[in-house]
């Protein structure tokens, strides 16, 4: 199995002692033979784009030597988030060569363009990690990658950190994974490593391992996980950061996935795929039939002067389907997404 990227460290650098405490604890874990499948990178946020100006905004450039010295003790690259050219230039001059662009920045093409055009002398020494935007807009995500490519950067990766859907989600996680968007991104950029930020998707430390394990089983190219020596006292995102001890347990579980033998193109697998193809054919035939019925309903409504959109009817239908999904082991959130798309197309067919 090829090595995967593992970006670890606290949400934010808070003090030199905290950063070195993290590095000391991670050092022995990362060099354990059981986790040798991963290529480690030490992370810490220095500039924190927090929603409220009254919250911790990061230590800024004064934390650069802390991060670099800590990374040297772990013998791995240092990485930090940058949102403005001055962040990038300060970190680059100090010696940092791995940078990630956060979801808020990816969502703003002007900010990405400014970063891409910053005067960096050796662009080939830089590795960029581009997080998906806050909303599930894959074009914004792809656009950020293309802006960096157009500026001459070649070492690029992406980070799937989930999407903030607000009241439109029933996910138990802080950010809805929407794996379909990550899968589509991977289809478009098959050669780019795609990591999963388990901490930001989960929002809670106890849920982060579940997300990380799912990402690795899906074949993601690595993970970003926030680790803090004392999460309860963290100055930002305290609830989602793992202790070093919890991280070690997770990595041991991930090692079991890495050492498992993946089945080849066996007769049994080929037969199962054939069944899936046949089932998909039946599914599409049923969807086509449903759309035909929708068009007939639309004609009836036009003849009788009825409104096409009848929200009460859809709310009742959606509740029933989500309950059915729950009873049959299907994620209700996924069922809602499917029904929303089908309903939207049904309404358009009736107009």
Secondary structure layout plus pairing:
Elements: E1 4-9, H1 16-30, E2 38-43, H2 64-74, E3 78-81, H3 85-94, E4 98-101, H4 103-106, H5 109-116, E5 127-131, H6 138-150, E6 155-160, H7 179-188, E7 194-197, H8 198-202, H9 208-217, E8 222-226, H10 244-259, H11 267-303, H12 311-327, H13 332-350
Parallel strand pairs: 1-2, 1-8, 2-3, 3-4, 4-5, 5-6, 6-7, 7-8
Notes on the structure:
By secondary structure, this protein is of the alpha/beta class. It folds into 2 domains: 4-259, Alpha-Beta Barrel (TIM Barrel), CATH 3.20.20; 267-350, Chorismate Mutase Domain, subunit A (Up-down Bundle). It has 13 helices and 8 strands. The protein has helices spanning 16-30, 64-74, 85-94, 103-106, 109-116, 138-150, 179-188, 198-202, 208-217, 244-259, 267-303, 311-327, 332-350; strands at residues 4-9, 38-43, 78-81, 98-101, 127-131, 155-160, 194-197, 222-226. It has an 8-stranded parallel beta barrel, surrounded by 5 helices. Helix 2 (64-74) links the parallel strand 2 and strand 3 (78-81). The longest helix is centred in the C-terminal third of the chain and has 37 residues, at 267-303. 32% of the residues are buried.
């Amino acid at each position: 199995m090829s090595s995967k990227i593992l970006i670890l460290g606290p949400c934010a650098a808070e003090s030199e002692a905290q950063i070195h405490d993290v590095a000391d604890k991670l050092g022995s874990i990362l060099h354990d033979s059981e986790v040798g499948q991963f290529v480690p990178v030490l992370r810490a946020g220095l500039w924190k784009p927090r929603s409220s100006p009254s919250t911790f905004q990061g230590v800024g450039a004064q934390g650069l030597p802390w991060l670099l010295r800590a990374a040297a003790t772990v013998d791995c690259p240092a990485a930090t988030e940058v949102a403005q050219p001055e962040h990038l230039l300060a970190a680059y001059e100090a010696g940092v060569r791995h940078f990630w662009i956060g979801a808020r920045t990816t969502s703003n093409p002007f900010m990405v363009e400014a970063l891409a055009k910053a005067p960096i002398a050796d662009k080939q020494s830089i590795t960029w990690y581009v997080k998906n935007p806050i909303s599930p807009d894959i074009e914004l995500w792809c656009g950020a990658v293309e802006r960096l490519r157009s500026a001459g950067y070649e070492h690029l990766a992406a980070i799937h950190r989930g999407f903030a859907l607000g009241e439109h989600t029933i996910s138990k996680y802080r950010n809805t994974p929407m794996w379909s968007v990550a899968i589509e991104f991977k289809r478009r950029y098959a050669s780019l490593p795609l990591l999963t930020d388990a901490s930001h998707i989960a929002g809670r430390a106890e849920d982060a391992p579940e997300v990380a394990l799912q990402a690795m089983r899906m074949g993601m190219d690595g993970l970003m996980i926030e680790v803090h020596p004392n999460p309860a006292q963290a100055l930002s995102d305290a609830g989602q950061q793992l202790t070093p001890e919890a991280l070690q347990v997770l990595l041991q579980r991930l090692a079991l996935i890495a050492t498992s033998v993946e089945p080849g193109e066996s007769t049994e697998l080929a037969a199962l795929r054939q069944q899936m193809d046949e089932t998909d054919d039946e599914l599409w035939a049923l969807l086509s039939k449903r759309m035909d019925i929708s068009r007939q309903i639309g004609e009836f409504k036009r003849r009788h002067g009825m409104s096409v959109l009848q929200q009460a009817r859809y709310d009742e239908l959606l509740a029933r389907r989500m309950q059915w999904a729950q009873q049959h082991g299907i994620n209700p959130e996924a069922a809602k997404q499917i029904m929303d798309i089908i309903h939207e197309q049904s309404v358009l067919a009736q107009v």
